[in-house]
What does this fold into?
Amino acid sequence: MTRILFSDKLDNCVTRWQSAGFTVIGPVTKDAFSSYTAVEHASDFDLGIVLPDRSLKELFFPQTEPMLRYTLKQQSINTEDFTPPSGKKLIFGVRPCDAAGLSIDDPLFGWDYKDEYWFQRRNNSVIVTIACTKADDFCLCTSLKLAPDSTTGSDILLRPLENNNGWHAEELTDRGREALLAIEEFLQEGSEPTAPMAVVPEMFDLDTCVAWLQNPENFESKFWKDISMRCIGCGSCTYLCPTCHCFDIQDEGDTYSGIRRKNWDSCSFALFTMHTSGHNPRSTQSARWRQRIMHKFNYFPGKFSVNSCSGCGRCSRQCPVDMGITETLQKISTLHS
Amino acid sequence: MITQEKYRSKVKKLLADGSVKMVIGYSPGSTADRRRPLFIRSFEEADQLVLDSNCIANLSGYLVTEGLLSDEKRVAIFLRPEGIRSLNILAAESQLNVDQIIIFGFDSIGREVNSLPGEHADEFSEFIGSIKENPPEKSREPLLYQLEQMNPQERFAFWKEEFSRCIKCYACRQSCPMCYCRRCVVDSNQPQWVNTSSHTLGNFEWNIVRAFHLAGRCVGCGNCDRSCPVNIPLRLINAKMSEEVLGSFNHFAGMSTTQEPVLASFKKEDSETFIL
It folds into this structure.
């Protein structure tokens, strides 16, 4: 016997969570475009999609965020911090790859300096993940040693029922327990069978790829130039990625007053590494693409013992020139290190 | 497919006799209907060439890749009519020497692919002129009619909503053959002319700056629109600008390799209704 949340009770749950002070968020499709968006009712959710076009990270690490306001009057400088919003969020219908993305970035944002913007949001959020019963050609979680029902980064895991009329609810954390406690009266004990998980074929052998990347001789390999020749150097793979976390700090305003903001930045851009002198240590697009792959599968795991990729496939799915992590690692896995 | 086979051997011949150092075309992509840009330098790569109605992307932007044409060797490229027009603009704006380019012109109706006769840019001028005179009716986006019915406030609200999704990944710029600046104005930070933030104001600034820079230059290839990862209907802005420029200055972008840029040239008969 397990606890079951039937779909027809979902709206009651949403209302209950809202009255418990949560902003309830979930996948919403509008004009054929989907993202994790705040909803009023359960009927606003689009739970039928493979995964939203936009990733979950932006709810924790928005594309632009004010950090402080400054004013200068005669000899005095005033600065006033923006504090991160303190509201509680419950994010329903998260995909396991997006949830894993959050936990991949936790050590990064908490490494030498604890990023209060990230952690305040993390601590105020409940992640309710729904295991995947369908996948598309670009999903690659299994290649990253994750799965359509991975629990990494989730507070609750829901497994769809075979009849598609509800979910098995599995609490994974204290926060998850509390969120389920709030909707206890809408849960039922039952033994309905769950639907089979999506089949996500393994696209490459990760260990082979990592070994190749770790071999210093391959840093200057011709492979990088060949694989990235068609890369146009936009930032869409990095900006839709659930784990890419680079940012830039910019002051907007003038000498006397303005706002300091934290904005997304991307290693795909030439400007990202441009020195004031005009020298650019990553002067070619192939050097930039190499950096992205090396960072995700060599440098980041070297520091934090986890790959900086959760296998959502967004990079490949939306690349204007049909590149992506999958193609690159597939090709690397066939090279001799 | 006959056309594709014909082109594969044509490409091999050009490579073998040294007429070109590279051919830019398409190869199969990661799904059945996706095509990838392909850079052919060997027979092996030539065998990956595909040419069918899914070959949509305008590849002409690759021609201005830094260093590609600096050795004065020739490059061949597969281009649709819009691609040929953008190549003409790149030549007219002195971004490349058009004599270094061999064009494999093609177009498609439904699933059927047709070759366009000619291989030098100048040989397509008459054909492009005919597109100007008889634009295919289907090409006008129905949403444009709707936007024209709106009052300025409604239109502003429409674009505010659309631009609210912009993440400033600059995929529109990077995929656009007309955005060839080595350093874009938004990447200048001494001084910082345009905010880098992707908030409402920043997103408006970016998209409006780009729209103005494309006025009279956009050929409507759709690269920006297809590249946008957040589905902003960028084609509408540029299509409207093209219509305005055509109506005001009788200028159809990319007619020839010597066409003067409309916003950088002056004619006595230009309408000057905006000057008080």
Summary: The interface with chain A takes residues 29-31, 34-39, 57, 61-62, 165, 167-171, 173-175, 187, 192, 195-199, 202, 223, 226-227, 229-231 of chain B (CB under 8 Å). Residues 2-135 of chain B form one domain. The radius of gyration of chain B is 20 Å.
